[in-house]
């Protein structure tokens, strides 16, 4: 019997899938199809894990693309970041190739724009920030996305922008995959690069602000090469970002995703205040929920392969077997309806909460007075200390912008009882530390990768050792809890705690005192503002700002945490 649609047989639901299917999965329904492949939702018959599967088609199915993708398997396996989508397996047989990936509970940005139109500046900034974080993770491992566009930017239930489809565009097809987002040099035959990714991210950002891409017309190549950059169509404070990101010459664009992210944060804070990220994430969450509530568009019909269609019946596993190793990478754009709006702190430009003050938290040990805002920091500090100690370590992303120069770090750390955490990271800064380097910090020694060898230097020494120690200190759990303990103002909204602390009090902290003393010295600040976001009892975001009264010098630290309890142990290299 040949089936050409969906329905029920003997009370059992089925979905028709044209062509070869990955063994060991039951298909639920198809999301999209076309010459470049199709995406289906499925369930792992062995573990009952819900996944999405992209079947390669067109040039993705030829041997040249497969060989290239195969060669990328190792760096792709090392790509783990909260702003990318996990890929579980790359499956190849004589009949076809496919990737099995994480099933994201979220909505594609393309669908949000189609349903809601322009997102507004705060949501657009939040989207661009998440996109740049995802690109930075890939670029750090020399993995270029190649064809970034709204359909492979996913917004999850917490308003996080997550990238899919890294390295899945066959070489030479980037302009066809996303002509509205393709940099000028791609039209001239140049290969995809980090610079073309930044151009595409800026074009998507422009579309979020205006509702349309920056260039549209019949001769897209000429428009991208020669058309004037339409920066005047976006809000004034954001025009510089558009001008930089859409520069015709790739050398005039930001040097890296991390540099672009620093410029974004400076522009966002200057225009919308320190709470821009919380507000933008909240708005993006709302837009995603509204788009998800509308009827889901029907997938494009897949082109026939010439082979017999296959019926995947719910509850019936395919007969063929196959091994599946877990490869962490980034893959196709997957849309799953059902976003749940998350509670997000909405702050005004001056850092005041836009929500009413919450009921004061209760402490088992009464205090004479609580910080302004009514939140007792003691239970929160105790909870953070206990939960992070149980987890033992995490992955992190660190950024510093403003006074003192830029700095960026990314990697993992292991907590050490009675001493500073051990870190493994890639890091870069300004001047002599601008080039990215690999470092391991254990106790009071920094190990720097030099070719195939490691050289040792004392922590806090000049150059990279000093930068590594700054990053370790700024991203440490004690630096976070010192802010909470020293707070003179502390408010809570949902999972976000926002407050202020005087630098003089922070400087007395035995662990992180030097960090905050230096922030105050570099800026002249008389107070330090901060926000901490929690998830399941563990911190996932720390934001710190020091700014002088005249708002002439500012330093901002931003730290993201993920994978608590799953980071690899850090040991001194041999």
UniProtKB/TrEMBL annotation:
Alphabetical keyword list: Kinase, Transferase
Biased amino acid composition, Low complexity: 353-372
Record InterPro entries: Kinase-like_dom_sf (IPR011009), Prot_kinase_dom (IPR000719), Ser_Thr_kinase (IPR053235)
Keyword Kinase among record annotations: yes
GO terms, molecular function: ATP binding; protein serine/threonine kinase activity
Pfam families linked to this entry: Pkinase (PF00069)
Presence of the UniProt keyword 4Fe-4S in the record: no
Residues covered by region (Disordered): 289-309, 353-379
GO cellular component, one term: cytoplasm
Domain Protein kinase positions: 25-269
Protein name (database record): Protein kinase
Species the sequence originates in: Actinomadura litoris
Organism placement in taxonomy: Bacteria, Bacillati, Actinomycetota, Actinomycetes, Streptosporangiales
